[in-house]
Amino acid sequence: MSTYGTTRHHHSPAANYSNRDRVTDYHTTLFRRLTWDGTVPLEIRVDPKELPANSDRNLECYFVQAPRVSYLPLLMPEIRRFFMDLVFDETVAKDIKDDEWWFETAEGTLVKWHWPVGLIYDNHTISASLKPSTSRSSANVTPLRLILHLASPPNDKLLLSPSPDACKQAFMGQLKEADFIRWGSTKRMTGLRQQDQDGLWEGIKEHNFDDYWRVASKVTPTTAPTRAQSPAPPPSSASMVNRPPSADPGGPSERDGAYNVRSIPVRLYLPDGPVIQDLVPPMADDNTPRTLSHYLTDHIPLLFPAPPPAPPPSRTNLHPRPPPVPRPAYALVQGIVMPSETEMAWLGGCLAGADGWVNVCIGINSQHS
Amino acid sequence: MTDSADRSLPSWASPDTPETNEEALKALQTYRKKDGDKVIVRFKAVGNAPIMKQNFFKITSSNRFQAVIQFLRKELGYKGSESLHTYINLAFSPAPDDTVANLFKSFQTDNHLIVNYSTTAAWG
């Protein structure tokens, strides 16, 4: 039973393969679990100008620790229950149409229905990084304060209805777009049975990690153990595209691995600024894995200038480091500041959102007195 | 700690001059600028969707996809709420706030962005 010559493992002996594969799977699963379990605090209050008469003002605020991978339309039932049942006066509540409700941040930024909660939060964090802070401590996690409006939603800017169905459509669209970015087609997504496709959204609705990943693992690449040696798949390998990854007896095939994708689905968010999306191949021009540093220098060099080379070694310093560069900005993924040597393919496999996308949010380092 | 001289200081410890933040803000201004660049969008009818006389259009790349949908509806003479579904490369519907620039960079073929349109939901 020779194990050499398969694409799954090039140099690891058969005896070690399953251990290493399990360790890699554990590593990937760990980060996916951490991402899934990530939550952010939301503090919701009705615009005081719109608070109906006779509302209980002692209960004006609804606090929720919301999953990063969830969506506001999915939180609406509990938000609605709180305000309708506890805050608003009964007779007034009857006439309130909750399909006209919409959210703004306390700073007046419109909140989009189709953005995952974690992205809404991180986008707010980086926007706040532009403003001078009084007592900002990076150890404190402050709730995102949202203003709930009860009428006149700016539909031309919201672009989507608040219904869970519209949200599901948008979610499925993002998964397919991510699939296309990775492989140049959506065959993996459309190859799923309808029941499975619906299962992805059900997993989000119920916030069930196992239900979601039971399906998602069929379409999301993992970081394979011997990635650096893996050959790139031939461009016309139709058989690779048509064969479902779950048909592989030992685990995900390396050809479907995170380092073999055409491009990683990633978007770059600048504070109060544009969203940048482009093709991001997993390997850089020198055939080393593309890092976050490469990616940021490529797209926003004014904020992430290329590091200067190290000075040549001398007798007194055999391993000189390059001089430190001032870092005016930092990059957040899932709310965590990412080291510059993080590999983009790894982010795609381990730290993407439930919609398949890696959202990199750029914040500006604060001045200090 | 013999290598302390080589170790970079974390950003909060380095002597930030006020200029560092100014430079960052200026950099953001540069990245916020919307140039008037246009890209070619090619509309392709699917199924029974009406065919247009002209299929290639130059569209300002900073536009959101929502603007492309509205443009298409106008060109087709659609009023009100008749349903029109749009897809990129016969594969997926983008988020309406994705910009044409981003979609072009990610999905262009032969230097144009293919937008398929149909009256019924084709690819979900």
Summarize the model shown:
The complex is a heterodimer of chains A (369) and B (124). Chain A has 12 helices and 9 strands. Chain A is an alpha+beta fold and 369 residues long.
Q: Would you give an account of this structure?
A:
Chain B: Its main location: membrane. Chain B: Belongs to the ATG12 family. The complex is a heterodimer of chains A (369) and B (124). Chain A is α+β, with helices and mostly antiparallel strands and 369 residues long. Chain A has a domain of 124 residues: Ubiquitin-like (UB roll), CATH 3.10.20.620. In chain A, the strands form two sheets. In chain A, strands 6-5-9-7-8 form a five-stranded mixed sheet, with helices on one face. By secondary structure, chain B is of the alpha+beta class. Chain B is built from three helices and four strands, in the order αββαβαβ. The longest helix of chain B is centred in the N-terminal third of the chain and has 15 residues. Chain B starts with 17 loop residues before the first helix and ends in a 6-residue tail after the last strand. The N terminus of chain B is likely disordered. At the A-B interface, helix 6 and strand 6 of A face helix 1 and helix 3 of B.
Topology, element by element:
The complex is a heterodimer of chains A (369) and B (124).
Chain A: H1 14-37, E1 39-46, E2 61-67, H2 72-87, H3 90-93, E3 102-105, H4 117-128, E4 144-149, H5 155-158, H6 164-183, H7 187-190, H8 194-205, H9 209-216, H10 238-242, E5 266-269, E6 275-277, H11 292-299, E7 329-333, E8 336-337, H12 344-350, E9 358-364
Parallel strand pairs in A: 1-4, 5-9
Antiparallel strand pairs in A: 1-2, 3-4, 5-6, 7-8, 7-9
Helix pairs in contact in A: 8-9
Chain B: H1 18-32, E1 38-45, E2 56-60, H2 65-75, E3 85-88, H3 100-107, E4 112-118
